[in-house]
Amino acid sequence: MLHASEKSAHSINALIVMLLIVAVSIASLCYSVYYAAAQLEEVGDVEPSSPVTVHQVTVKSGDNLTKVFHTIGLDNKAIASVSTLGEKAKPLYHLKPKQHMTIAVDEVTNRCVNLVLWLSNTEKLECSWEEDHYKVERIKQTLEQSTNYAKIVVKRTLLEDAIKAGVGQHIVYQLTDALGWEIDFIKDLRPGDTFTLLYQQMYVPDKGYVDGDLEEVIFTHKSSELRADKFTNGKGFSAFYLPDGRRLSRDFLSRPLKYTRVSSPFTLSRKHPLLGITRPHHGVDLAAKYGSPIWSTAQGRVVFVGNKSGYGKTVVIQHNHQYKTLYAHLSKFAKNLKVGGRVKQGEIIGYVGMTGITTGPHLHYEVRVHNKPINPFSLKIPRSPSLAKKDLPSFQALLQSNDEVRTQMQKAREEG
User: CB–CB of 309/295 below 8 Å?
Assistant: First the structure.
């Protein structure tokens, strides 16, 4: 048994331990209260952020930065603050139709706090307000890509039927470029003909999905089939090839612009709509929107730039000792185009107009062989070189891969 003095000592020790525990708890509580108070004091020092309104803008013809800012309610002070950002922000001062902009505006200060201008599907210009200045950056990004499948059944016109099938104009133009030497899209197409396509799509922030490059097209006419697949060789050169490796493209492009219709064909006897006299029409008239770009159908040397009587503003290009092309009724010439200069295939040389004797905006396009005019749509040009033997195995692997992708997507489409 313990003596009374020992019991008392044990009690005192237990009491001391309890007092220590209580003291530690009180100290911990005091620290927590102090820390919380300090945090609240810091929060109290921070100004609440101002509300921001985000505007989505698609640039229209004739727009500039001042007009866009006024449209969304920004004043001249806000315009002045972004009008001197230097060379890096130059695209802001030369806006182009259909460009997309995202503009964030502080509702309290009425200042543009962030501006994004998409320069392409993979590059944007961003201006961000940081305390007392704008930070300007050009940002390139890798976009998520996916392969899309579509089938166009011809009923009326290729473009109209393509849009009904969910295929955009960008893909249709690539399609006509790829098969332009194989198919006369005005005369050859019949109801029931089909185009089966594989093409890339990209997801672009603020814009959604946009069409990329056409990868494969299969044209079916009755029981015949024409297939072309895009292949990129080891040097980075891309073109469309037939399954046996023959290249579809020629040394001449099939058309010099994106036109809506043939307003007057090549003929040896035509009554002129304005002059009222009958005479040969040594080219084709291709109706298009005023100002549409016109490109050279082949590489060559410019031998004439200027006004040519009823042709109006005209460009003539010599391609070799044999071929020459003429482009007439232009509204204006491309910058730096001059006699003696060299042009590449597909290079813009001018823009659709109404100069000379004409009833409406169009391009008069001629092709001459040994200076003899011929119908551009019946021009026979040898194919460009076929695939090199070393590239054939890779090309065959591509064909097999496209077969598998197409089959899977066709099955998914049918089951869906």
Answer: no
> Which positions of the chain have pLDDT values less than 50?
1-2, 4, 7, 17, 24, 31-48
What are the residue ranges spanned by the domains of the chain?
52-140, 144-249+387-415, 261-378
Q: Read off the pLDDT of residues 379-412 as tens digits, 9 standing for 90 and up.
A: 877 777 889 999 999 999 999 999 999 999 988 8
Of 51, 63, 130, 118, give the one whose Cα is nearest residue 91.
118
Just give the CATH number of 52-140: 3.10.450.350
Q: Domain 261-378: which CATH class? A: mainly beta
Instruction: Please check whether residue 152 is in contact with residue 161, taking contact to mean a CB–CB distance below 8 angstroms.
Output: yes
Please give the CATH number for the structural domain made up of 144-249+387-415: 3.10.450.350
Domains 144-249+387-415 and 261-378 share a fold: no
pLDDT digits (tens, 9 = 90+) for 322-351: 899 999 999 999 998 999 998 988 899 999
